[in-house]
Structures are given as structure tokens and as C-alpha cells.
Amino acid sequence: MITELVMNRVRQLFLALIGVLKRAMCCFSRRRKLSLGECEVLNTVSVDKDHGRFKNVPEKDWNSWDDSPKTVEEHIERYRETLAQPPSPEEPKVEMDYFQDMAQQILSQPKICIATDTEPNDFSRLTAKIDIPVVNELEDWNEGDRHGWDDADETTTKQLIRETRKELRAQRYQNRHQPEASYT
After folding, report:
1. What is the pTM of this model?
2. How far is CA 111 from CA 104, 108, 114, 119, in A?
3. Are 69 and 77 within 8 A, CB to CB?
4. Entry's InterPro entries (predicted)?
């Protein structure tokens, strides 16, 4: 405990001494600000060429200032000369296809056909098979005594429907009155 107290005091004294020395050094190291009259005059100027900006621009000849065409014929001749010159081959830019591995790969499934060899090999879709027997006269339909719709069938179906409805009503009536009789 006492050693900690002594160490703290020594440390504080050491830091105070360093602070005083630091301030003394700052006072001596400061410079005066220069007034306007004492500024140095700029004598030289250096210009650096920016080569990156003008890489593709060809330099013109100093003697070609007056070479521009002045008449229409000269313009036409200059245009024909530019057309006659073969175009410079441009290298196509190769673009990376980042999605190539994501594209679907469609593979057709192998087809398996299970069939017997009873079908003829010389099959043609344009040939017609004639298997229908040809009869020289028309055949008669054997209808017998019946002509048109049978009226008797219609009346019998109506009677059957009425009878089934009567039976259903009778069953409902019995079902309704039967529970009442059992309670009393």
C-alpha cells in the first residue's frame, strides 16, 4: 500500500517535469509568421504532361495546317480516299460470361420403344387399306312393328315414378308417427 502511494507520487512528479520541459521546447521551436513583404517570389513553373489522357490522339504535323480541303471536289476526293482505305481490324473484346455455369443443360431422354415386329416394315402413311366388303345393294333395317318412339314405354315410366313417390311418402309418414306412439 505504501509502495503504491510512493510510486504514484514519483510518477506524478516525473510527468510534471516532462510537461514543463515540453512547454519550454514549444516556446523556442515556434517560428514567426512571415509578413507579406517577406514572401519568396515564385521563379519557376514546371508543367508535367499527362500522358494518360492523350494516349490515342496522334500528333499532327506542323506543316499540315493548310491541308484541309477548300472546295467541294476536294471534300469528295478526301471522302473517297477514306472509303478506299481498309478499315483497321478491331479486336473484339472478350467478355467473361459469369452465368455460363448457371445455364440449364437440357439433355433429351433416350426413347425406348417396346413393340413386336408384326408391323410391316414398308409402312407408308399415304397408302389406304381396303378391308371393307363392297355390297352392291342397300341393306334394309329390320325394325319390325315399331315406328318412332314407343308411347307405352313413356306411360310405364310415369307410373313407376308415381309409385315410388307414393312409397316414399308412406315411409316418411310412418317414420313421423312411429316415435310419437312410443312416447305415449
Report:
1. 0.19
2. 21, 9, 10, 19
3. yes
4. Cancer-assoc_antigen_RCAS1
